[in-house]
Amino acid sequence: RYATLSHCWGPPTSKPPLRTTKFNQIGHSKGIALATLTLNFLDAVLICRKLGLDYIWIDSLCIIQDDSADWEAEAAKMADIYRGSYLNIAAAAAADAHGGIIGLTSLPDPKDRLTNINYSSAASDTETLILQEGLGVGEYWQINKTSHPYFGRGWVLQELALSPRTVLFTAGQMFWQCRSCFVSEDAYARRQLSYLSDTAPAIAGLVDFFSKAAHNTPMLGLWKETLRYDLLWAMR
Asked: Does pTM surpass 0.85?
């Protein structure tokens, strides 16, 4: 079992990540000191250790970067590499290789904070990928290509699509994606209520908000206008 790392190298102005080259190939094959690891890589190693995974595949370390023949041969295998991984670790909040995965101290840029959000207009913005609840009442954070450049990276599409399971570390929380679900840390179903009868009232305001924003009619936990799609199921 091995993990893979999905990350952003960063713009040309950023310091490049630690790389394997013809010059250091022999040294890297013998071992790489933790102290020399780029912060994204170090965090990924720590995550693997906590999960009991002994191996991790990182593109800049596992492909000889100044050897075109090796790059072409290994790039052709990347689909199988991500598809065969036990877990894909996505450093979604790091703008480059030095941002880190865990222990991020920076929140998304204030310009990405929305107050009294018009959900319809935000949802139609192709740059907006996820809306997260913000720190204040009525405030939301946009997870987009500006606040999280990771999602603008071309390689990310196949890395997320092919990996059997991925944990995405964003600036606000973690997201889990696998073949059967996409969930966040703030999933309502995992929250506790002292009285089960409070379930409907506790979420009524949220239902009303999205009902008005999407112009849909709530019906027993689903939407009347999309009921036939919401009830579809498939065998896996």
From this structure: no
For residue 135, give the DSSP letter. S
CB proximity list for 40: less than 8 A, separation 6 or greater: 5, 7, 17, 91, 94, 97, 98, 99, 100, 101
Q: 74-112 burial, b if ≥16 CB within 10 A, otherwise e?
A: beeebeebbeebbbbbbbbbbbbbebbbeebeeebeeeb
Is pLDDT at 224 greater than 70 in this prediction? yes
Q: Are 177 and 164 in contact (CB under 8 A)?
A: no
133 vs 102: CA distance, rounded Å? 20
Question: What single string gives the DSSP state of each residue in 206-227?
Answer: HHHHHHHHHT--EETTEEGGGH
Of 6, 2, 1, nearest in space to 156 by CA: 6
Mean of per-residue pLDDT scores for the chain: 78
Q: What whole-number distance in Å separates Cα of residue 188 and Cα of residue 190?
A: 5
Rounded to 5 degrees, φ, ψ at 2 are -145, 160
